[in-house]
Design goal:
Layout (H helix, E strand, L loop, with lengths): L1 E7 L2 H12 L7 E5 L6 H10 L16 E5 L3 E6 L14 H4 L5 E5 L13 E8 L5 E7 L5 H9 L16
Helix pairs in contact: 1-2
The protein binds adenosine-5'-triphosphate and magnesium ion.
């Protein structure tokens, strides 16, 4: 299990980190975006998609459609399960409607999708709101396929998170 905490002190930093992360994603990557309303999951997704050549303005929250598909260098499925109340509402969907094994899958409010997954490479990103402009990104994965991402991030010189005020992150 690898993890990393990165401070996102501005929209610009969020954009930079998301684009950096996008470079380490691969066919079949599943990015689960955790965090409260307004923490920045869609904002982060725009920059991830931009890293794949998708116009970020075309990336909008698929809250009512459940999934948007963006053709970039890879096909990106952008899923948002906020409006679902129970996994029963997913019964009309096949796994392949929501998860793109041949491209990238990004999921906001992913909890109900966990039952669709077994050993896929999942990258968990939990965004915490610290202030109007500042967020803290908690990254975690138990898939070895993200080892290079975590190794590279450890080399980067990020603004250091204040570990005194670290909360217990629940994914
Ligand atoms: N450092 C930052 N990183 C990301 N977003 C930020 C940052 N600072 C301010 N923001 C703002 O926070 C808001 C995040 O909204 P966004 O729609 O991305 O949240 P969300 O997590 O997708 O919400 P929801 O759960 O409703 O889908 C945006 O208005 C964005 O401009
Ligand atoms: Mg959103």
């Amino acid at each position: 299990m690898l993890n990393q905490i990165i401070n996102l002190n501005s929209l610009r930093e969020t954009d930079r980190i998301a684009k950096l992360i996008s470079k380490y994603l691969f066919k079949g990557s599943i990015i689960m975006l955790w965090g409260k309303m307004g923490s920045g999951k869609t904002t982060f997704t725009k920059s991830l998609c931009s890293g794949f050549g998708v116009n970020p303005e075309k990336v909008t929250s698929p809250t009512y459609t459940l999934v948007n598909i963006y053709p970039g260098n890879l096909y990106i499925f952008h899923v948002d399960l906020f409006r679902l109340n129970s996994s029963k509402e997913l019964e009309d969907f096949d796994r392949s409607d929501l998860i793109n094994d041949n491209g990238i899958t990004i999921i906001e409010w992913p909890k109900l999708l966990l039952s669709f997954l077994s050993d896929e490479p999942v990258l968990n990103l939990n965004i915490e709101t610290l202030s109007n402009k500042a967020r803290r990104l908690n990254m975690e994965s138990s898939s070895k396929k993200f080892d290079t991402l975590f190794m590279s991030l450890k080399q980067e010189n990020f603004s250091k998170p204040n570990t005194d005020i670290l909360s217990n992150t629940t994914f």
